[in-house]
Amino acid sequence: MEERIKKNIEEIKDFSTNSHEELEAFRIKYLGKKGLLTSYFIDFKSLDNDKKKDVGQLLNQLKLSAQSKLEELKTKLLSGVSKSKLNDLSRPGDIIQLGSRHPISIVKNRIVEIFSEIGFTISEGPEIEDDWHNFSALNLPEHHPARDMQDTFFVDKDPDFLLRTHTSSVQVRYMENNKPPIRTISPGRVYRNEAISARSHCFFHQIEGLCIDKDVSFADLKQTLEYFTTKLFGKSKIRLRPSYFPFTEPSAEVDVYWGLNNETDYKMTKGTGWLEIMGCGMVDPNVLKNCKIDPNEYSGFAFGLGIDRIALLLHQIDDIRLLSENDIRFLEQFKASY
Ligand code: DAH
After folding, report:
1. Closest Cα partner for 12 from 55, 60, 65?
2. End residue of a domain, out of 27, 52, 87
3. Is the Cβ atom of 303 under 6 angstroms away from ligand 1?
4. Closest-lying ligand 1 atom to the alpha carbon of residue 247
């Protein structure tokens, strides 16, 4: 038996092949279930104890050399295949998978583009804000009941640091650091403690707009909004409903006329044909003063809209949770979007 094993080891050493079939036959011969190794191990059990040590070592050697030869030839065969493939210059290239943008980014980019065309710059501010920029400077002093409109996540109480509840905070920062004329929009993520149902979210995205100059009027605001809704939705009919925001006076809520042409329109507009899309108004003189801008010399308008809601509208997405679940099957559908 020892002689036979030694002979096998020699055979393995000399073995070589370029064929997958021969290599498979080699594997079956030595390492297969009914192969040589298995039958040697069966015979091994009935050997005398004094022989077992030497034969055991030989058997291990046989097993290892068969295994390493198999691996060696496998790698050789595989590299041969890829080499011949590589040399084939007519072979079609690998398809590169394209990624897709998130619907929120798509809509944000589109809105930014629309306002850039009429001279608005882009500005950003921190997501962790202080009380002054998020509330006080915006005419929302401490204990003002309007603060209840935005349930706030506080990071620290003394001094007050919080997760900004709206992008209006960037207005304040921008006015503190820039002189009029000002035309800027500020996209970003905002946070509110609104986890009251499975459908509501603690963060969402807004775009704030601000325009300050001499003689800016409510008519300028309306004209700008009409331009915007025509560009974004292809719809120019809007209406402004009186509303209240502490940082603007007068304030309004903007509705766009969507139409009532089909069942989806009825559903989206709850049968009214109108869709609410944003809040706006003339910047309150107190806010200008807080930012060291003279309200006797300058006036301006501001507006704020929710990107998530508009993304749902534009892409007919019926569940807001899809926007934050990162489900590839959902996200992949936006591949062809701009
Ligand atoms: N900050 C408001 C909110 O989060 C949105 C808003 C309304 C912004 C009116 C404005 C504005 O600039 O003029 O609900």
Report:
1. 65
2. 87
3. yes
4. 13
